[in-house]
Design a protein that fits this description.
Elements: H1 9-19, H2 23-36, H3 41-53, H4 57-70, H5 75-87, H6 91-104, H7 109-120, H8 125-141, H9 146-158, H10 162-172, H11 180-192, H12 196-207, H13 216-227
Helix pairs in contact: 1-2, 3-4, 3-5, 4-5, 5-6, 5-7, 6-7, 7-8, 7-9, 8-9, 9-10, 9-11, 10-11, 11-12, 11-13, 12-13
Length: 228
């Protein structure tokens, strides 16, 4: 009660149940948390995060959208809405949210990095050009960031620059632990370059990841194709 930034007991309980793998009770307590504090942005966002992690994307959208309505200035809410839209392959909506976040906070890496990912998946050549601009700037400003290099490499791949994509993504493996998305990007390029064994190994590692993984379905399809 003294600190309004602390999550409600209901939300804390829900997160604890989730951490212990008891999703049934996590669902009960996240529901309770929203009932007790329907106007609390943080409660809405942690609930949205749980829905995302349990692949309930429509529910995640509902909670994240509610958070943006409660606080239209919340950068965290805008970013999260964009992330959920990426998972749903709704790239235009993702672009809108990340564009808003980028305008609000031009130096925010997550906003510009994810904006590049949303733009490159669309057919509009102007958007794809902007994706390259954002990804290039981030890679230059963050030369040792696995995430920045990963996005830059994926943008290059989507633009048809396979050799450059391969070079950059290989460099990304030396800057830190690979996220499942980065492993998928590298596997796609490796498969195109004829390195089937490497691609299979990368995809296998990505599929074992427990964190949310926007390219999981695509990774499953590619892994089946390479191992048949």
């Amino acid at each position: 009660k003294l600190d309004e930034n602390v999550l409600t007991p209901e939300a804390q309980l829900a997160r604890f149940y989730h951490e212990f793998g008891d999703e049934a009770n996590a669902q009960i307590w996240f529901n309770n948390a929203v009932k007790v504090a329907p106007n609390d942005v943080r409660t809405r966002l942690v609930t949205a995060q749980w829905y995302l992690e349990t692949n309930q994307l429509d529910k995640a959208t509902e909670e994240a959208t509610a958070a943006t309505k409660l606080d239209p200035k919340s950068l965290e809410a805008k970013l999260f809405c964009g992330v959920v839209a990426l998972f749903k392959k709704d790239y235009k909506s993702a672009e809108t949210y990340f564009e808003q976040a980028h305008l609000q906070s031009p130096g925010n890496f997550a906003a510009s990095n994810n904006l590049a990912l949303a733009l490159i998946e669309q057919d509009d050549e102007n958007k794809r050009r902007r994706a390259l601009e954002y990804a290039t700037a981030n890679a230059r400003q963050n030369p040792r960031s696995t995430e920045a290099l990963s996005t830059y490499g994926w943008v290059q791949y989507k633009l048809g620059n396979i050799d450059e994509a391969d070079r950059v993504l290989q460099a990304a493996t030396k800057t830190g632990a690979l996220s499942p998305d980065t492993a998928y990007y590298l596997a796609v390029v490796a498969a195109q370059k004829g390195r089937k064994d490497q691609a299979v190994q990368l995809l296998g590692a990505a599929m074992k990841a427990t964190q949310p993984f926007s390219q999981r379905q695509e990774a499953e399809v590619l892994l089946k194709q390479l191992t048949q």
